[in-house]
Amino acid sequence: MAVHERPILVIGDKNYSSWSxxxxxxxxxxxxxxxxxxxxxxxxATKATILRHSPSGKVPALKLGEVVIPESLAICEWAAExxxxxxxxxxxxxxxxxxxxxxxxxxxxxxxxxxECPMDVLARHHGHPISDACRSDxxxxxGIWSHVRRDYGADGPYLFGAWSIADAMFGPVVSRFVTYGPxxxxxxxxxxxxxxxxxxxxxxxxxxxxxxxxxL
Length: 216
Ligand SMILES: N[C@@H](CCC(=O)N[C@@H](CS)C(=O)NCC(=O)O)C(=O)O
Fold this sequence. Notes:
Blueprint (H helix, E strand, L loop, with lengths): L7 E4 L6 H12 L5 E4 L7 H8 L7 E4 L2 E4 L1 H11 L10 H16 L2 H6 L15 H21 L12 H16 L5 H10 L3 H16 L2
Parallel strand pairs: 1-2
Antiparallel strand pairs: 1-3, 3-4
Helix pairs in contact: 1-3, 1-7, 1-9, 4-7
The protein binds glutathione.
Protein name: Glutathione S-transferase
Keywords: Transferase
GO molecular function: glutathione transferase activity; maleylacetoacetate isomerase activity
């Protein structure tokens, strides 16, 4: 289906909505012109407002005319297919498959990390207690990052060298590590430093700061 209207991304609060951050980073890094609609989370009106945009009742949702695409990973894939600034998937087919695999693992997993260390972009909680189960999630993430950086990351500082949808999917994990400061192996710490300085990531943080400062 041809899309003629400007895409609209419906998102939650930039300080808290980790699922919203992922496709927002992908659309932004891909240079896609899109409109942003913000739904304030954790209010009595939140659910009804989201349902006016998406039958899934969740953000993010990408509106393409009358078509609504929910689910962060699907929107990141759409961003990869429509990117104009830079490709968002590796050119090599094997690297591309691994990129999709680690993105899907992020989408489906790491529930303990997500629960114990909720995204709170502007906060700093270094010294926050980390349970064994949470440490196990962090160890698997360190393993993924070290593996893909070593095997596919030679051409740049991001997971697959050039920035990709895997960096979008792990963006909120980078933010959690900045907020909670768990000890990380060197490769993971280096990646956090690079990913947290990417222009799209920085623009999201600036947006979170603006929303908090203005109470929007
Ligand atoms: N699997 C979904 C998860 C979306 C999700 O859980 N979004 C949360 C915000 S981060 C939400 O909409 N919460 C509002 C609610 O449930 O009322 C995705 O990947 O997009």
